[in-house]
Amino acid sequence: MRYLFLIVLISCSYLFIKMGFSATANPTVFGIKIFTNKLAFASHPKPVNEQSKFKIQDTLRLKPRNQLVKHNDSNIITGAEQTEIYGPVLKGKKVALVVNQTSVIGHTHLVDSMLSLGIKVQAIFAPEHGFRGDHSAGAKVNSAIDQKTGIKITSLYGKNKKPTAEDLAGIEYVVFDIQDVGVRFYTYISTMHYVMEACAENKIPFMILDRPNPNGHYVDGPVLDINFKSFIGMHPVPLVHGLTVGEFAQMIQGENWLANGKKCQLTVIKIKGYTHGSLYKLPIRPSPNLSTQESIYLYPSLGLFEGTNVSVGRGTPTPFEWLGRPGLKNGSTVYTPKKIPGVADDPPYEGKMCRGILLTEFCNHYLLDSKQIYLEWLPLFYKSNTIENGDFFKNSSFDRLAGSDKLRLQIIAGNTSAEIRESWKPGLIKYEAVRKKYLMYAM
């Protein structure tokens, strides 16, 4: 009986090794979850020969999740859903909305809901990715007319990133309702900052219909040095700031971050039933390349790679679930980025096979419980870089994403993840004291 058990155990272990690390979970074998390969656009990821193991894939330390992300608690009621609170305030006012495809009440867009309530929506302002969320990252968004309602849509991601006095002429209230993901370089909070500033300058009340932060259950990363301030990082906050947009707006106002210390008349319609411990599944993708809940959880860790020569999977069906590049000698899967209009107009390494790792199951089994950015991949991919790959860092881009040049210099110097993380502590402690003043929801 002992020998039979050993034979079965060895056979199952061999099966597990042959299956490799990838994305789609199969039934467990003796309590061990095994994984099969997942389709990557036109090509299947393929296991690498066992003789050439790559240290990066050794970082995929899978373990059972402590908690599962269930369907959203029905007790969570977003600010937008509470029409009984803000409807009477806006009734009879000429209103401008800062909205995109995430601005919905159930299946109805906020623009339509407000018009049905008799609220005079006079103008729509659109952030990066546009009113319908159909522009790829960095693509210029042009102003237009909404064909359904005839309302003018003014882009805040084109010629201007801040509404002009002319844009706001006659407006009596500005309402912001956009789903954020809680990461400093996600530009919706930068758009919010500029709209608040315009409201302060033109003495127009500003209302936020608050929404949950899917990464609001932790705070981590380097705090931005204001010498590296840009549209992808305007505030001295950590990479993962742990605030809803309503809380963030209060911080902007309270810390005097608006130009010349101006203040706007700010109202936040709070979320009901939400805490920072809530694991909130987004019902609508917040931008074209965050198409799954896993990509949203991986985004804080993978977003920094946008400042390197490593692909995060733009041009595949599951961007921000991959790390890879052409010519990488080892890695557990391959994928080939393709152009996807409105999603990945010009993806890195378009049409070229990239080898690397697929991180979906790593996210589901490790990352969410860790409540921190996963740093190990950055130094490992840096060390694997070759002359043929070219420069690993896109210096100005990486530094703006990281919030300073310090992280790049630490990686070049060979600092360990533990050493890098230790250097973040003073800034995080200071930030937590500031954050505490503006929290509206329990931890």
Description:
A hairpin with a 2-residue loop joins β1 (24-29) and β2 (32-36). 28% of the residues lie in helices and 15% in strands. The protein has helices spanning 2-19, 83-90, 110-116, 188-202, 245-254, 293-302, 360-370, 377-384, 395-402, 406-413, 417-436; strands at residues 24-29, 32-36, 94-99, 104-105, 108-109, 120-126, 144-145, 152-155, 173-177, 206-209, 220-223, 238-240, 266-269, 322-325, 333-335, 354-358. It is globular. It folds into two domains: 43-66 and 289-404, Aspartate Aminotransferase, domain 1; 83-282, Rossmann fold, CATH 3.40.50. It is of the alpha/beta class.
Helix share bin? 25-40%
What is the rounded distance between the termini?
52 Å
CATH topology of the largest domain: Rossmann fold
Low-confidence stretches: 1-54
Gyration radius from CA atoms, angstroms: 23 Å
- What percent of residues are in strands? 5-15%
Query: Would you count the extended β strands for me?
Result: 16
Give a short account of the largest sheet: 7 strands, mixed
Assembly state of the chains shown: single chain
Report mean pLDDT, rounded to a whole number: 85
Please write the string of helix (H) and strand (E) elements. HEEHEEEHEEEEHEEEHEHEEEHHHHH
CATH superfamily membership of the largest domain: Uncharacterised protein PF07075, DUF1343
How many DSSP H or I helices? 11
- Report strand order across the widest sheet: 7-8-6-3-9-10-13
Tell me the count of domains. Answer: 2
**What structural class do the secondary elements suggest?**
alpha/beta
